[in-house]
Amino acid sequence: MKAPDPRLSKALASWRDWGLPLTAPPVVRTMIPGGLTNRNFRLRAPGLGEDLVLRLGHPEPERLGIDRGLEFEVMNVTDAAGLSRPVWHWDGDAGVAVFPWIDARSWADADFSDPVQRQRLWPLIEAMGELRLAGPRRRYLDYLDRYWAQIVSHGLADDRLSEDWQSFRPRLAEFDRADWQASLVHHDLIPSNVLDTGERLILIDWEYAAMGHPAIDRWTLDRSWVQDDWIDEMMRWINRLWSLLVEL
């Protein structure tokens, strides 16, 4: 028999703190597949009349550059704009979030390749670009410097990678100093983070969102839409270093 998951058990035991009209403890129906850094569960919610989604975030969010406070702010702003789902319970310290269950399918790679589907998604990207947060724009150098320090401390940087990084880093600093207009950027706009109800699209998993360079989400959707080779190079570095860290 599989041993109980202590984080899941603790999260479920906190159900009275969720502020929802539950009449009994919620019960896991199934684990929702997918997710490299989060685990998601569909819950039966006695007394509520609908199911819930319980998300257990990565236990070390700072290691991956995740700011739970900023994430919560972004989710509320995007929910108000009709781009995402509402948050019904939030415990940033524990990495626990509760959402309503939405009868929708997650997009696949084929959806990103489908011109019709991309045209459905494009208005959400444009609407996101109109949103503003109170804080400063992301400093990508600081962000990747934190990644790099961890990679070095864990002995993951060979000579070739170190040489490449030292060549890339000054140009990243120059990019941060450049005068470009920031907008809200998802920074992880992959197919599985798009839910499709058939009538509307909903963006989820805003852990990496911040005020950033507006070309990044367009690059993620279709690299041919971004003519600036620099965005391609920077995003390859971000993904390369993140991939090393997520395996730790």
Structure overview:
It is built from eight helices and ten strands. It is α+β, with helices and mostly antiparallel strands. The protein has two domains: 6-103, Phosphorylase Kinase, domain 1; 106-246, Aminoglycoside 3'-phosphotransferase, Chain: A, domain 2, CATH 3.90.1200. The protein has a five-stranded antiparallel sheet, with helices on one face. A three-stranded antiparallel sheet has the order 6-8-9, with helices on one face. A two-stranded antiparallel ribbon has the order 7-10. Strand 2 and strand 3 (52-56) form a beta hairpin. It starts with 5 loop residues before the first helix and ends with a helix. 25% of the residues are buried. This is Aminoglycoside phosphotransferase domain-containing protein.
